[in-house]
């Protein structure tokens, strides 16, 4: 089964907790703190594997959770870092954050990797909090939570040539006779429900990959038919071959078909019209095809070569395959939008989010939220008095106490942070 889009939840591993411990060895009086740091949590990494050509693995597994780091140990031993979780994806995979629509990664070449979510760092043990004023601290951090996000994984097939055209114009038949591919062929619309790939070998020992894309119809760029689902696959192709039913078997005007397909390509992505194009005038063995071809060439204003073929009788196939191979030899090996990604990275200042914000619930309780304060809260071990005092100092340092007073907080008022409640004390 061909799967080219999936929504997935990914969660990197949390960092291991730091340890509160002290040296208790014979002949070592006042040994001091000896709690080790926790190990880092595992990253989730996508890696390109050329042996894959579908996102089938994501159909049955839509949740990926990496391992957490090992907790710190006594004698100042560092916990083990968790090994990254590497997930194989086919070339042409694009990863998008579903919440922000930001493109996280565009993976195209064998072995290419991208960190999708980063694991949390390990919490520090009590040896890290030694100061001259406090030589034996009883404070340690919990591990930092790993990043989590909902992502959309899309596959855009990487093929040299893409066959486009209305349903039943002969795209699948053409692919089946020029390659070893075995696409489904039948006398009804939308026989092809998924793109098919075939490797073409010309008689002069040149080869290229051709993709038979599901039939497009008017309105495809807006989601009509199967268009919006598969138009993205055209983006990766280097040459577009328009297959046109020149015999007009379904009483459509061939030139009108050509114009409508180009319009859908332009509305989906205007850059597609800049790709080299070839017109395959198919079904030339049928009655009326010659007359339609003459009328088609009279209307054609674009400088696009037209090749007369019959996929059924195999006439004209050698010429069009040589023309495609010649065109591929004259243009870059990869599609322009992939080539342009290797640009100089320019740093741009981005305003950081506020460390916290405060609102009030209907019952009058004050609610504190924000990425920074929530992260500090999760990394605090509330079973330790020292850690609680440290967390209180961090809140005061961030200005949360002063902000609560400005908003009218009084002694004994309820303050909420995540799912926990505290009492405001002056």
UniProtKB/TrEMBL annotation:
<dbReference type="InterPro" id="IPR045086">
    <property type="entry name" value="OBG_GTPase"/>
</dbReference>
<keyword id="KW-0342">GTP-binding</keyword>
<feature type="region of interest" description="Disordered">
    <location>
        <begin position="119"/>
        <end position="145"/>
    </location>
</feature>
<dbReference type="InterPro" id="IPR027417">
    <property type="entry name" value="P-loop_NTPase"/>
</dbReference>
<keyword id="KW-0479">Metal-binding</keyword>
<keyword id="KW-0963">Cytoplasm</keyword>
<dbReference type="InterPro" id="IPR006074">
    <property type="entry name" value="GTP1-OBG_CS"/>
</dbReference>
<dbReference type="GO" id="GO:0042254">
    <property type="term" value="P:ribosome biogenesis"/>
</dbReference>
<feature type="binding site">
    <location>
        <position position="172"/>
    </location>
    <ligand>
        <name>Mg(2+)</name>
    </ligand>
</feature>
<dbReference type="Pfam" id="PF01926">
    <property type="entry name" value="MMR_HSR1"/>
</dbReference>
<dbReference type="InterPro" id="IPR036726">
    <property type="entry name" value="GTP1_OBG_dom_sf"/>
</dbReference>
<keyword id="KW-0460">Magnesium</keyword>
<feature type="binding site">
    <location>
        <begin position="282"/>
        <end position="285"/>
    </location>
    <ligand>
        <name>GTP</name>
    </ligand>
</feature>
<feature type="binding site">
    <location>
        <begin position="212"/>
        <end position="215"/>
    </location>
    <ligand>
        <name>GTP</name>
    </ligand>
</feature>
<dbReference type="GO" id="GO:0005737">
    <property type="term" value="C:cytoplasm"/>
</dbReference>
<dbReference type="InterPro" id="IPR031167">
    <property type="entry name" value="G_OBG"/>
</dbReference>
<dbReference type="InterPro" id="IPR006169">
    <property type="entry name" value="GTP1_OBG_dom"/>
</dbReference>
<feature type="domain" description="Obg">
    <location>
        <begin position="1"/>
        <end position="158"/>
    </location>
</feature>
<feature type="binding site">
    <location>
        <begin position="190"/>
        <end position="194"/>
    </location>
    <ligand>
        <name>GTP</name>
    </ligand>
</feature>
<comment type="similarity">
    <text>Belongs to the TRAFAC class OBG-HflX-like GTPase superfamily. OBG GTPase family.</text>
</comment>
<dbReference type="GO" id="GO:0003924">
    <property type="term" value="F:GTPase activity"/>
</dbReference>
<feature type="binding site">
    <location>
        <begin position="310"/>
        <end position="312"/>
    </location>
    <ligand>
        <name>GTP</name>
    </ligand>
</feature>
<dbReference type="GO" id="GO:0000287">
    <property type="term" value="F:magnesium ion binding"/>
</dbReference>
<dbReference type="InterPro" id="IPR015349">
    <property type="entry name" value="OCT_dom"/>
</dbReference>
<comment type="subunit">
    <text>Monomer.</text>
</comment>
<feature type="domain" description="OCT">
    <location>
        <begin position="348"/>
        <end position="426"/>
    </location>
</feature>
<dbReference type="InterPro" id="IPR036346">
    <property type="entry name" value="GTP-bd_prot_GTP1/OBG_C_sf"/>
</dbReference>
<dbReference type="Pfam" id="PF01018">
    <property type="entry name" value="GTP1_OBG"/>
</dbReference>
<feature type="domain" description="OBG-type G">
    <location>
        <begin position="159"/>
        <end position="329"/>
    </location>
</feature>
<protein>
    <recommendedName>
        <fullName>GTPase Obg</fullName>
        <ecNumber>3.6.5.-</ecNumber>
    </recommendedName>
</protein>
<comment type="function">
    <text>An essential GTPase which binds GTP, GDP and possibly (p)ppGpp with moderate affinity, with high nucleotide exchange rates and a fairly low GTP hydrolysis rate. Plays a role in control of the cell cycle, stress response, ribosome biogenesis and in those bacteria that undergo differentiation, in morphogenesis control.</text>
</comment>
<dbReference type="InterPro" id="IPR006073">
    <property type="entry name" value="GTP-bd"/>
</dbReference>
<dbReference type="InterPro" id="IPR014100">
    <property type="entry name" value="GTP-bd_Obg/CgtA"/>
</dbReference>
<feature type="binding site">
    <location>
        <position position="192"/>
    </location>
    <ligand>
        <name>Mg(2+)</name>
    </ligand>
</feature>
<keyword id="KW-0378">Hydrolase</keyword>
<feature type="binding site">
    <location>
        <begin position="165"/>
        <end position="172"/>
    </location>
    <ligand>
        <name>GTP</name>
    </ligand>
</feature>
<keyword id="KW-0547">Nucleotide-binding</keyword>
<dbReference type="Pfam" id="PF09269">
    <property type="entry name" value="DUF1967"/>
</dbReference>
<dbReference type="GO" id="GO:0005525">
    <property type="term" value="F:GTP binding"/>
</dbReference>
């Amino acid at each position: 089964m061909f799967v080219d889009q999936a929504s997935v939840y990914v969660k990197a591993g949390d960092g291991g907790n730091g340890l509160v411990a002290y040296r208790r060895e014979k002949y070592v009086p006042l040994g001091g703190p000896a709690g080790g740091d926790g190990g880092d949590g595992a990253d989730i990494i996508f890696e390109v594997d050329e042996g894959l050509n579908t996102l089938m693995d994501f159909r049955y597994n839509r949740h990926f959770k990496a391992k957490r780091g090992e907790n710190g140990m006594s004698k100042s031993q560092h916990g083990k870092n968790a090994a990254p979780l590497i997930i194989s994806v086919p070339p042409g995979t694009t990863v998008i954050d579903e919440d922000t629509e930001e493109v996280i990664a565009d993976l195209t070449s064998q072995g290419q990797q991208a960190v999708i979510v980063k694991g949390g760092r390990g919490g520090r043990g009590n040896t890290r909090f030694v100061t001259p004023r406090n030589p034996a601290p009883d404070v340690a951090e919990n591990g930092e939570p790993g990043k989590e996000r909902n992502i959309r994984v899309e596959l855009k097939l990487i093929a040299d040539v893409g066959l486009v055209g209305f349903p039943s114009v002969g795209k699948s038949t053409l692919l089946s006779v020029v390659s070893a591919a075995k696409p489904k062929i039948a006398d009804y619309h939308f026989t092809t429900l998924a793109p098919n790939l075939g490797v073409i070998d010309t008689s002069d020992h040149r080869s290229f990959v051709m993709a038979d894309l599901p039939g497009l119809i008017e309105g495809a760029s807006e989601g009509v038919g199967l268009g919006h689902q598969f138009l993205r696959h055209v983006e990766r192709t280097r040459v577009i071959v328009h297959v046109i039913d020149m015999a007009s078997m379904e009483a459509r005007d061939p030139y009108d078909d050509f114009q409508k397909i180009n319009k859908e390509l332009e509305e989906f992505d205007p850059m597609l019209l800049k790709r080299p194009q070839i017109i395959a005038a198919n079904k030339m063995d049928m009655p009326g095809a010659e007359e339609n071809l003459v009328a088609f060439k009279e209307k054609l204003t674009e400088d696009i070569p037209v090749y007369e073929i019959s996929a059924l009788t195999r006439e004209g196939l050698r010429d069009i395959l040589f023309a495609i191979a010649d065109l591929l030899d004259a243009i870059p090996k990869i599609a322009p939008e992939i080539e342009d990604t290797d640009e100089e990275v320019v740093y741009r200042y981005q305003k950081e989010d506020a460390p916290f914000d405060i609102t009030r619930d209907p019952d009058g309780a004050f609610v504190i939220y924000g990425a920074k304060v929530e992260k500090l809260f999760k990394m605090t071990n509330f079973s330790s008095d020292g850690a609680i005092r440290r967390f209180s100092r961090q809140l005061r340092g961030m200005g949360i106490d002063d902000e609560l007073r400005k908003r009218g907080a009084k002694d004994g008022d309820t303050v909420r942070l995540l799912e926990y409640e505290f009492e405001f004390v002056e």
